[in-house]
Write a structure and sequence with these properties.
Length: 380
Amino acid sequence: MKIKSLLLGSAAALIAVSGARAADAVVVAEPEPAEYVKICDVYGSGYFYIPGTETCLRIGGYVRYDVGMGDVGSFDGAKSFDHQDGDQQDTWKKNARFTFKTWTGQETELGTLKTYTEMRFNFGNSNGYGTLASGNPAVDKGVSVKFAWIQLGGLRVGKDESAFDSFIGYAGAVIQDTLVPYGDFDTNVVQYYFDTGNGFSAVVSLEEGSGVVGTIDSYVPHVVGGVKYTQGWGAITGVVAYDSNYEEVAGKVRLDVKPMDNLSLFIMGGYGTDDNLNDDAGNVIDAHGRGFYKQWSGNWAIWGGGTYTINEKTSLNAQLSYDEGKNFGVAANVAYEIVKGFKITAEVDYLHVGEDTVTNWTKADKENSVGGILRFQRSF
């Protein structure tokens, strides 16, 4: 009996030890917890947290295809001077673009830290060279950096567009908003924005300019200052710019009103000095007395227009412009959003060249020019 009990006990012990070893053999280490991407709604829709950081990121952009016809117009659209050469191609003019954008935001002890970048990849198509008219391959056919700035609180540094144009709200929602030009755009900046929170805001911007006649040639920067008052009925904005290259001053005042929920109107006037721009001292300046800011002909110019929203998919946009040199521009379009994120815009443009030609929008031998653009754009 004792021998039987001993054998049974030994067998039980062996089974227990074997079972323990078998259990040890199949133990799998616990996996590290997965870190999923989290939505960040602090700065608006589309942002998400970069894993492992407190930085919110948004990615976007658009794909655009423009078809142009006639003797007047530009494919870069509002806010840029990518002129076409009217003598190079007398039929259709086309341009395809892919634009990639990024936004970041992060809260710090010194305020919100933001960045914004925009890269443009263009392919122009006109007979011979596959470029549009400006003669700048980096813009017409290739890659360009449109924006690349950092902002902490109200301080912004980097590549931007001049506050002389961006702070006042440009000049309408038409594609060809610079038939009578209202200022140059691309520049490196050091800016500070003020926002009192009760409708008043202001900006001070130190700018480098761009181009042959626009880039500063000393340690003294161009200077732009602006103030704005915004309420439910609209806004009043004013900007003043000092062109340090030629010691000239230019300014613009704009009034925005909303007489109806689906109608917004604006009128903007500009005035600039040009004494030094028109001298005969042998400086390399524009033949028509334009600096970086006063791009229009003569001392004064005026722009006006508006947007009428027919429904949630369709809007009408128009702009009229005129300057002291008797240059007169008209632009009008219909924008229709076929589906969310995909819009088609059809625009017609007219330019009358006055006593002093302000731009090479049109053929030099034409006093009156008509053209148009059909734009397809998928934004995301």
